[in-house]
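Task: sequence in, structure out. Protein: Elongator complex protein 5.
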Amino acid sequence: MAPSAQAHHRSHSLLLLQKLLNLRDSASPLTLVCDTIEQGAGPLVREVISRAKFARSKVIFISLATVKRPQDADIFIKARGKSLKILADEINTHIALPSKGTASTLQKYLLIIDTLNPLTTPLQTHLLPAFLTSILPNPCTSLVAVYHTDIPSPSQTSPYTPTPLTLLYHLATTVFHVSSLAHAIDSHRAHLRSLPAPSFGLHESREGVLIGLAERQNGIVLDMEMRRRSGRAVAERFILTPSSDSKTGASIMLLADHPLFAPLQVDETSGKEGEEGETTFSLGLTEKQRRDREGIVLPYFDAQTEGGGGEGGRILYDMGREDDFDEEEDEI
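Result:
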């Protein structure tokens, strides 16, 4: 890929992520954030809320697991124990319906659901599409919902019923999978050494208290998949690094641009690899080795040249003193 094409792809991907995080032009009405116990969706959700407040959007936080009201939430709704119908009616009381001629001045809303897992019981899973549609009454409303993928889903009443995660994948316009940057770096280093990828968290299958790794890298990895209106999906991997200053937003970059994930660079003049390879030997050739290789005469070189002595497919061979001439083999 040419450098200009690489720069265009990088700029396009970063601008698309900025557009999604800023909730600009209703880029994604329903954003699904999938996390695990190894890496929660908190940094991404806080960044979306912070940008929504900067854009003067109204933040409605729908709590199914959160006890305390988030700092930047304008409205805090406790949803545990309520049916989907009652919950939808309560949410819609805080959202103004659009009217003709006011599209440009319509108030923007950001809905946050801290976890969808309690709403995916066998008795409620088939009601999720209608519920999610009912709480998005106008085009200026965006919904960001979190789903914990490491929590086992309850058994379905029918084998033909899709799993809750499959249904949410189908409904969502953008899906984010969050993971730890420290875990991704360790897995990448193991891949460079052709070693098995390490396991973390529940995949370690270790008994006792689950203790996460220390935060050696300040950031999370975002695996993004955005579905456009044409049906084409755009997939990319990013690194989001939260900022300690609330006034400045988090920094984002492509995963491929991170120094530890950059591809190995080979110097064409010297043939030596960069230090990222961490090999104990050189795969390149020195200038003397290259001159010696070019001076080697290949076997049967005379038969390969045009006008040589090997016309007709004959192979020229000069016997040496150590060769034993066999008349029978020569006749054959």
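Residues 276-331 form one domain.
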